[in-house]
Amino acid sequence: MNRTTALAAAALALAATCLPLQAYEKNDVILRLGATTVSPNVDSDDINLPTGLVAEADVDDDTQLGIIPAYMIDDHWGIELLAATPFEHDVEANGKGDIRGVSLDAGKITHLPPTLMVQWYPRGGQPGWQPYLGVGANYTFIYDEEVDGQLLGLLADLTGGAVDDANLDLDDSFGLAAQAGVDIPLNDHWAFNLGVWYLDIDSTAKITAKSGGETLAKVKFDIDIDPWVYNVGIAYRF
Asked: Cβ–Cβ contacts within 10 Å for residue 218, how many?
């Protein structure tokens, strides 16, 4: 059973035992907590390595604690902030052309993607399931970038040992966001939550190769991370 099937089965099982008690109304505060997974959908420009070799970047998934407060402006409209503990992702360099099929660990990045959403609750003011849709904006802080030893070793090999250090840097990103989700009530305050977001995260990456502390070469490329973000957890209505 894959993850999507398992989540759907869990939601149906819970729905079968739920009592339709919860209704969202003006001035309600809703706090959602859960396992939040950032799953990048990467599109990378070519990374032009020394000696004419070419690669492209990829970024793996990570799951952290999601902390997602929302405030109901009225029965049907709310404002939500997607927050979480910092996400850490491994970055890979995948070969193209003459080195197609070759993959190596390029580094790590850490980021925080706070996302502010305006939400519409079509069943606001009514008891039972509370589905919602949202649109908004995301600002992603990218920090603590690190170059992996595999990439450093490759750069050293390609330059005859001249490269002895390297830095990785990614720009922060601002972009649009969209979401859909549902709270399935367990009682008048608690609910089971499923949520999904799509975030527009576009960045420019720079790899700086050094020799003896001096810059030897720089490689710059654009990378669209554009992740799907999934949350599975609980919600509490104050």
From this structure: 11
pLDDT attached to residue 51:
67
In a domain, 116, yes or no: yes
**What own/partner pairs with CB < 8 Å and gap ≥ 24 does 123-126 have?**
123/24, 124/23, 124/24, 124/25, 124/72, 124/74, 124/75, 124/76, 124/77, 125/23, 125/24, 125/25, 125/75, 125/76, 126/23
In terms of DSSP H, where are the helices of 30-187? Answer: 149-158
CB 81 within 8 A of CB 134: no
- Please state, for a pLDDT cut of 70, what percent of the chain lies above it: 90
Residue type, 33: L
Name the band, by pLDDT with cuts 50, 70 and 90, for residue 2: low
Mapped onto helix, strand or coil, the DSSP state of residue 50 is helix
Which structural domain range is residue 180 located in? 3-142+173-202+224-237
Q: How far apart are CA 80 and CA 134, in angstroms?
A: 9
86 pLDDT band, cuts 50/70/90, is very high
Is the residue at 164 inside a domain?
no
In a domain, 134, yes or no: yes
- Over residues 35-51, mean pLDDT: 88
